[in-house]
Structure formats: C-alpha cells, structure tokens
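Hello,

Our lab assistant flagged a job as stuck in the queue for most of the afternoon. It eventually completed. Since we weren't sure the result was trustworthy after the delay, we are filing this so someone can double-check. Below is the sequence as submitted and the structure that was eventually returned. Let us know if re-running is recommended.
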Amino acid sequence: MKRIVKGVAVSVLVWACALAALIAFGTSKAPPVLGVVTKAFAAIDDTTLPPLHAYRARDGSQLTFREYPAGGRQVAVLIHGSAGSSEDMHPLALALQAGGTTVYVPDLRGHGANMPHGDIAYDGQLDDDLADFLDGIKPRHPGATWTLLGFSSGGGFALRVAADVPLGQAFDRYILVSPYLKYNAPSVRNTDAATEEHGGQRSSVTSGSWAAPYIGRIIGLSTLNFLGVHLWDGLPVIAFAVPPNVPSLTRTYSWRLLRNFGARPDYLADIRAVRRPTHVYVGAADQLLVADKLKEEFQSQRPDIPASIIPGMGHSDMVTRPEAIRTIAKEFP
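-- returned structure --
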C-alpha cells in the first residue's frame, strides 16, 4: 500500500513540475513588426483626433473613449482590432461623422490609454465594460438606430456580442469588418505567401505572423482552468508584431484577455445565434484572412448574412483606405 501511495505521489509531483515548467518557460519571442498591418495605422493623421473622455465601469475603473458628434439619428460604436486603440478607427469615424452618424470609439480595457496594457480581471469583463458604456451614452440618443462595428479581433468580439442575450439586443445591427474568428478557422491565412484568385483575377498576397502564441503556457493554463484553477490567467500568452516604441499599442495579451477579445470558441454557433441584421466586409487582398473562405464560413451557417469582398483591399486598408471606407459608409444612409 505504501508503495502505491508513494508511486502516486511521485506521479503527481512529476505532473505538477511538468505543468509548472510549461507555464513558466512555455513562451515565445515576439514576431518581427508586420508592416503590412501596422504601417497604415502609423500613417493616420492624428492631429484631428478628438480628445479622450472617460466613463465609469462597474468596478470603478475610468475607461477612455473618443466621441465624434453629428446630431443625426444614427449612432455607431466602433471596436478596434487586437493590439490597437481608438486611434486606429479615426479615418472611418471621421467619414461616418461627415455623413451624419454620431460615432463613439472606446479604448477597450487593457488597450490605448487604459493601463495596465494587456490584461483584464476576468473573462467576460470586456462585455461588462461595453454594457456599462452603453448605460452611460444611450440616454443621450433617444430614438436612434445603434450599430456596433468591429474590426479584425474587434469584429470577432462584435460577433460575440451579437450572439449574446441580452447584450446583443442593445444594438439594431452589426457590421463586421475583416473579422478574426479563431486561430484555426479556415479563413485564417497560415502561409507566408500565397496566390489568391477572386473575380477571375489572380494576385500575390504576402503575409507574415501577426502574433506569436505561447503554446506551452496556453496548454498549462488550459489544464489548470479545466481543474478550476485561474490564479495565473493574468500571465501573457501571446505577443503581437507591433513596434515597441508606440505607447498606444498593446504588445502582449494575458490568457483571460485573449479568451475574451473575440468570438467564442464555437464561433459557428455565434454566427447561427445572431438575431440582428449583420453585414460582413473583407478585403480581397487581406494579408491575414482568406476572403472567400471567410464568406463561406458565414454563409454556410447563415445565408441571410451578406459578406462583401472589396477588391484590392488589404487587412488594415478596410478601416484606413478611402475606397473601403466609402463602401462601408453606405451602410449609414
């Protein structure tokens, strides 16, 4: 009996040491800066950025947002992409404002002016923050039509919101721009270089790594979560290909932030659960996503959700280039 107990104890100790090693040392180097994504945002004219305002979240935090008032009956809330901030949505926000839509662009918790970067307190806190934000600004616009527009990981997060009850009912419609759904989704580009065909034309699309996941640490934390342990969920588990000297950018995400900022793991169920009008937009030359496959993912589950592919547009072009912005702005009559 003692021998069995000793054997079990040794096995548990070895297992615990292996798990600890995965969490402590299962990290990765940040990928090189991915200019095909970051350069478009770096070129944004920030001299016309509106000032930051703050709202109070339920935990007492003061979280920042930008406002583009227009006075019309349309209101849009824009959600930036991974590692980004409200600054990234400035060209699109200006265009919508010029067309008569009031625009709000929050910095999500752990991003932009909200410190510390790269972490939240629990999975689901971003959803709660959005609900708190809406509680503060919705009374300002009685009778307005509300749109949630998300870009990239923000598009995945917008899909998550659209599938949620009751939060999803806070908006009248959804626009998902180049939505990132999941690391292993068919729409996620996995090659460094590929040739794409769309509309009878073939073009070369070059891509690098936007993010480097800490695979070992993710395995370790997932195992602990399965056992009900969440003590180390605030550790970073992914690094992004962003310049190191830009204060508004978020360089790493914790495990709980990574799990919250995007669609749920069963993103196909999220697509099926959408109960408000939704439109998907993606660029034909997207360096991170395969446009045709993204369209298939949505329409295989919901043929009533249109997915528009804009010729010649890359990933960041969709919220920075006038050609793409004009197309998206037509959603706001």
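-- support follow-up --
The delay was a queue issue, not a problem with the job. The result is valid. The two ends are 77 Å apart (CA to CA). Residues 2-329 form a domain with the Rossmann fold fold (CATH 3.40.50.1820).
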